[in-house]
Amino acid sequence: MADKKERNGEFWELALDRAHLGVWDWDLRSGDCFYSAMWSQMLGYGEGELAKTSDLWLQLTHPDDRERAVASGERHIAGLTDSIETELRLKHKSGHWVWVLDRGGVVERDADGRPVRLMGVQTDITKQKQAEATLEQVNVRFGLALAASGTGIWHHDLAARKSYWDKRTREIFGLVADTDEVSQELWHSYLHPDDRADAERAHLAPLQTQKVVAVQYRIIKRDGEIRHVESLIRFIADAQSSGQILGTVRDVTKAKQREQELAHAARHDALTGLLNRAAFDRLLAEHIATARRLAVFYVDLDYFKALNDFAGHAAGDLALKRVAERILGCLPPSVHAARLGGDEFALLVPDCDAAQAERLAGAVLAAVRDADLGSTAASRKLAASIGIAFVADANTAVADALACADDACYAAKAAGRNRFAVFSPEATSGSSGLNAARLAADTVDAMADGRLKLFGQEIHQLGKPWQESRHVEVLARLAGRNGRLIPPGEFIPAAERFGVASRLDRWIIRTALSLHGPALKSGALTLGFNLSAQTLSDPQLWDFVDAVIAETGAPHSGIGFEITETAAVTNFTAAEQFVRKARERRCRVSLDDFGAGMSSFEYLRRFPVDAIKIDGSFIEHIAESRFDREIVSAISGIARSLGCSVVAEKIEAQDALDILADMGIAFGQGFLLHRPEPLQAIVTRAIAIRASATQVSATRASKTRASAPAAAGRRA
């Protein structure tokens, strides 16, 4: 009997303690309520610290949970429920709240059946509630992610042969239904006939693997609309059934359309819709390889710059579009047209003889003359000079074919413009387009064989030594195969004319940052790079620059870019986007050759640049030209009001420097201040200056620290 009592008493008390269950025992007749030691421990109290009153638990219950907890007990006492079961929070001795699961019920009744005693246990479920809260957060985030991505969820029960689509999946397919369950055959009925086999095969693939399978296909909605969708599919095994196929679905129609647009943009000029230079070169190479006679037309608009200066870049863009439309309108279907850049166009005419070329050239000239240029440029007219070159040799290089046509175009211009000329090898001169093409090709070779050299010219803060600013404009010098230095005025225009300017710019940027990235990172100096119109129009430019910066460690803040008005005119939108992206990365941007064109102030208004460089034509005669002084003063005043720094170019005389300093021009560049020299020499000098300044600062700091104790002693 003693063993049985021990099992009924101490044994069960020990079991409850081991299970961390807090026991309560409420006598309804006396109002007394017993709480076990484990119940007190669960709330951080020792034995005897809590007065065991009937409402103790209610005093410790969170205000938001009291009503629900009391109601649970009252319903049970009233016989409405079989037991008490509720979740509530109790206040811990340290002040935080403990979640408990309260379970219990009537254990004794009087002779009339009325409850007189209740008992129960409370279990600490704080960790469970925290896990539930964490899971709820995950579910909310998952739901938000799905909603943000527009992704639908579906699954197919293989054993039941039933499919279930969530609301978003039904919306993507255009299905109007109130339930998730759909027929197994429904999905198949939406598939585009050309994609059906591949899509069905992809959805069966997960049965063979645990991997996620991705597939894209088209669906035809009930209204006939075709949409592109993407699904991720995975098989989920289940020991109790055949398993399920779980998948997502997302409408990727816009992304597909964007891909098609990008593919089109990669081959076409954004402004006119004609083929771009790269696409035209590839097409020309393909046609030349067939060894069939073809004609290449080089079309250069006459008087376009005057129109652009007179009416502005918007009118210039409209004129280019209208001219392109007119040219396309007069071409046979077999002819391919391209915009090479700026106001230059090219035509590829297969199976063309001299008579056909003459008729087509006449039609193009008329199309340009008669083009409606818009109301802004109504008083202006354009014309064209056309060069024609015939190609019948499959070994002819694309650059040579275009160079011949370009050479003939120069002949047409020299003869008075608004006409065409046919290339004649006998008529070429030493400065012909053909030689320019070879020079462009030699520039490309020089990048690989070490004949292209990096030079630099210092930009000075007027009135102060260069050591205080240490900014350098990066230049390039080309050594010919005979060792003679070829002036930039020769090889850079040739590179621009024959489509290698962007490659040249990239080589300069990559080489300079690869060699001198650590110097830029240390703050020894900053470098500025000139960009051609072709580079500005390159949609991959910033991907390239960011990649080179990541490779070399050069900081964005140590790099500046200079764009000219000529480059901006060629593609205003691209220039605007370039400036915006540069400023996002904290690269400096300068507007070069400022004032040389009629639209300069408009560009200054539209482009939030860091600095402008006043064209050297206003600086070289500033001492004797009042007009030039007024122009420079006006530009400087406007720039300062916009928060732009001002750099005066081509400072070659002391009197010019003095005048500019008196005007408050902050920066200058020119032979008087510094003649271009190899960039490596400048960087080496800048590093030495930086190291010397650092050493001086360190010495001063050391002396200051060394003198501090003595000074303190004197004060004491």
Automatic annotation (TrEMBL):
Annotated EAL domain ranges read 436-690
Instruction: List the CDD domains.
Output: EAL, GGDEF, PAS
Task: Give the PROSITE patterns listed for this entry.
Answer: EAL, GGDEF, PAC
Residue intervals of the PAC domain: 84-137, 213-264
Q: Please list the residue ranges annotated as the GGDEF domain.
A: 292-425
What PANTHER family is this protein classified in?
A: DIGUANYLATE CYCLASE DGCE-RELATED, DIGUANYLATE CYCLASE DGCP
* Matching NCBIfam families: GGDEF (TIGR00254), sensory_box (TIGR00229)
Q: Quote the protein name from its UniProt record.
A: PAS domain S-box-containing protein/diguanylate cyclase (GGDEF) domain-containing protein
Species: Mesorhizobium escarrei
